[in-house]
Write a structure and sequence with these properties.
alpha+beta; Helix Hairpins; 5-stranded mixed sheet; two-stranded antiparallel sheet; 10 helices; 7 strands; elongated; cell membrane; histidine kinase; two-component regulatory system
Length: about 375
């Protein structure tokens, strides 16, 4: 932001000039009054006259060279004093005018112009006030934007949950209605409809479970059962659980840990959920992938970085910034056949944060990688 000095209006300049003229006139009258009073006092008191004469003689600088008359000394002293008083009065009034401009700018912002900032530059403590006001406006705007995002997120939550519940619920009601009215004649059709209704009911239960887990994790209401985990063994176990599904898609699961015996402190069940989510997503959305890599490496002496990579189709750039949002799905149809509840990665991020770690994602034509950084030891921290 380019700062500028406060520019006075023509009226303010006239006001400042008038202030100077009035101050000068008052000071001259005051000086003249004091000078007259001192002259009268000296003329009416012979002792003062003799004292002044003695002082002038005692501080003379050679013959014929005496100090100036006391009137001249007084006038010189008062002139310096007057200049100081005049400067103080004018600069004081100028600062008041600066404050007036700042207050005017503040009123303009208060009217709802939150994109406006006070860009004045002053050399007094008023600058701290201006900077504080700008910082306050910035934080207020940020809070308003965050509140709007939260409201939008709530609206999206209602919309997405309604869609994800209504679709299987409609199927369940439809098939149960057919069974209830006796429209279905063959036992084979009845069994098929029951199986479909059961599948849809499980889909609704999965959504309810994910919602519950996401809420408890985000609100830190979940309990953590910490234990020492052998990282390589955990990743091998995750890879083994997806081996059959990977073989069907001709995908190779690879595990690499450096050093091989590295251990970390974590909740085994929740970390299992994290890597199950990531590998499941790689299998589901990594179209054209031939490899899924689980790579763990020590970082420094107290951290570990775990990467879940696949060489399938990249994630679109506009999706990368939203991928950890709750209910966000890269595919927009929200079909159960092509995607889940949209809570998996949001839950994953929350679990990582509970372990005082962080997760990020990168994606290009070569690799899509979810990168997790975690501390090896979980220390007690005040949030």
């Amino acid at each position: 932001m380019n700062r500028k000095k406060v520019k006075l209006t023509g009226k303010e300049k006239s006001e400042l000039f008038g202030e100077g003229v009035v101050t000068v006139v008052l000071l001259l009258l005051l000086n003249l009054s004091i000078l007259i009073l001192i002259n009268l006092a000296i003329l009416n008191n012979q002792d003062l006259i003799n004292g002044i004469w003695i002082i002038k003689q005692s501080i003379s600088f050679g013959e014929g060279f005496h100090i100036y008359s006391w009137q001249n000394i007084f006038v010189g002293f008062m002139a310096i004093t007057d200049l100081i008083v005049l400067y103080w009065r004018l600069i004081r009034r100028y600062h008041q005018m600066q404050m007036r401009h700042v207050i005017s700018e503040l009123h303009y912002i208060a009217e709802g112009n939150f994109d406006h900032r006070i860009n004045f530059y002053v050399k007094t403590d008023l600058q701290k006030v201006i900077d504080s006001i700008n910082s306050l406006v910035d934080s207020t705007v940020a809070a308003m934007q965050e509140e709007r995002q939260i409201e939008q997120s709530k609206d999206d939550l209602v919309t997405n949950v309604s869609h994800d519940i209504r679709t299987p619920l409609t199927s369940i009601i439809g098939y149960l209605g057919l069974l209830r009215t006796g429209t279905v004649k063959s036992e084979e059709d009845a069994k098929k409809y029951i199986d479909i209704a059961y599948l849809k009911a499980n889909q609704m239960k999965s959504l309810a479970d994910d919602l519950y887990e996401y809420t408890t994790v985000r609100q830190s209401q979940t309990t953590m059962s910490m234990s020492e985990l052998h990282v390589n063994s955990m990743l091998e176990q995750v890879a083994a659980s997806f081996e059959l599904e990977a073989e069907k898609k001709n995908i190779q699961l690879n595990v690499e840990t450096t050093p091989a015996d590295i251990t970390m402190e974590a909740d085994a069940e929740k970390m299992g959920r994290v890597f199950n989510n990531l590998v499941s997503n790689a299998l589901k959305y990594g179209n054209g992938a031939t490899n899924i890599n689980l790579i763990a490496t020590r970082k420094d002496v107290d951290k570990i970085v775990i990467r879940v990579e696949n060489d399938g189709e990249p994630i679109p750039n506009d999706a990368l910034t939203k991928i950890f949002e709750r209910f966000y799905r890269v595919e927009t149809s929200r079909s159960v056949e092509t995607g889940g509840t949209g809570l998996g990665l949001a839950i994953t991020q929350s679990i990582i944060e509970l372990h005082h770690g962080k997760i990020s994602v990168t994606s290009d034509e070569a690799l899509t990688a979810f990168i997790i950084e975690l501390p090896l030891k979980q220390e007690e921290r005040e949030d």
